Automatic annotation (TrEMBL):
Condenses 4-methyl-5-(beta-hydroxyethyl)thiazole monophosphate (THZ-P) and 2-methyl-4-amino-5-hydroxymethyl pyrimidine pyrophosphate (HMP-PP) to form thiamine monophosphate (TMP). This is Thiamine-phosphate synthase. The lineage of its organism: Bacteria, Bacillati, Bacillota, Clostridia, Neomoorellales. 4-amino-2-methyl-5-(diphosphooxymethyl)pyrimidine binds at N64, S102, K131. Its EC number is 2.5.1.3.
Length: 216
C-alpha cells in the first residue's frame, strides 16, 4: 500500500488539489488529509471535495486529526497522533471506519494495536526535512514493531524509491510519502516510481522484460 500524506505548504506553483489527484492517478492507494492548521470549516470543505474526486478513482480518503470532519465527510478512515489517541482512545474507537495511529516506538505501537488501531504509521525512518533536528528511527523501528503487533505497519519519513526495498525486507507492509510526491515536478510520476518499488521483485523483472521485448 502506498499512502500519500498531504501538506499543502509543500506544493509550490501548482494547484494543491490537482497535485493530490495527479498522485492518486499515478499509483497512490489511499490519501491521508493532514492539514492540521486549517479551520474546521475549510478542512471539511476540502475533505468533501477530495472524498468526491477520489471516490471516482476508488481511492479511500483518510482524515487526520479531526474526528468530527472524518465523520461528517463519511471518510473511509480517521488517523490520529499517538498522544491524542492515548488521551481519547474510546472516542476514537467509536469511529466506525478504519482507524490509523502514528507511532514512534514499539511500546506505542503495542498500545495502539491493543486499543483498536487497524494500521500504524511508524516513523520517521529516515532523515526528512519535515522533522528538522530529530534523529531518524531507522529500520530497527519497523522490525521491533512487527515483532510485537499483527496489524499492518506503514513506514513514513524520508521515503524514496531507493529505500523501499529495504523497508519491505524489514517487514513494512506499506509506505507513506509526503515530500517526495508533493515537491516533485510530476506528482503522478513520483507516486508511480514508489508504487513500482512496492511490487514483488519478480513482477518488476517481468515488467522490465516485457518493456524490452516491446522496444525490440
Amino acid at each position: 500500500m502506498l499512502y500519500l500524506v498531504t501538506n499543502r505548504l509543500l506544493v509550490q506553483n501548482r494547484n494543491f488539489l490537482d497535485c493530490i489527484l495527479d498522485a492518486a492517478a499515478g499509483g497512490v492507494d489511499a490519501v491521508i488529509l493532514r492539514e492540521k492548521d486549517l479551520p474546521d470549516a475549510e478542512l471539511l470543505a476540502l475533505a468533501k471535495i477530495l472524498q468526491y474526486r477520489l471516490g471516482k478513482l476508488n481511492i479511500p480518503l483518510i482524515v487526520n486529526g479531526n474526528l468530527l470532519v472524518a465523520k461528517q465527510t463519511g471518510a473511509a478512515g480517521y488517523h490520529d497522533g499517538f498522544h491524542h489517541f492515548a488521551q481519547f482512545t474510546q472516542e476514537c474507537r467509536n469511529f466506525s471506519e478504519k482507524l490509523g495511529v502514528s507511532v514512534h516506538s514499539a511500546s506505542e505501537a503495542e498500545f495502539a494495536a491493543a486499543n483498536g488501531a487497524d494500521y500504524l504509521l511508524a516513523g520517521h525512518i529516515y532523515h526528512t526535512a519535515s522533522k528538522p533536528g530529530l534523529s531518524p528511527k531507522g529500520l530497527q523501528l519497523i522490525k521491533e514493531i512487527k515483532a510485537r503487533v499483527d496489524i499492518p505497519v506503514v513506514a513514513i519519513g524520508g521515503i524514496m524509491p531507493d529505500n523501499v526495498e529495504e523497508l519491505l525486507e524489514a517487514g513494512a507492509d506499506g509506505i507513506a510519502a509526503m515530500s517526495y510526491i508533493l515537491t516533485a515536478p510530476n506528482p503522478g510520476q513520483a507516486a508511480g516510481a514508489l508504487k513500482q518499488r512496492l511490487k514483488p521483485l519478480s513482477e518488476r523483472n517481468d515488467l522490465l522484460d516485457n518493456n524490452s521485448t516491446m522496444e525490440r
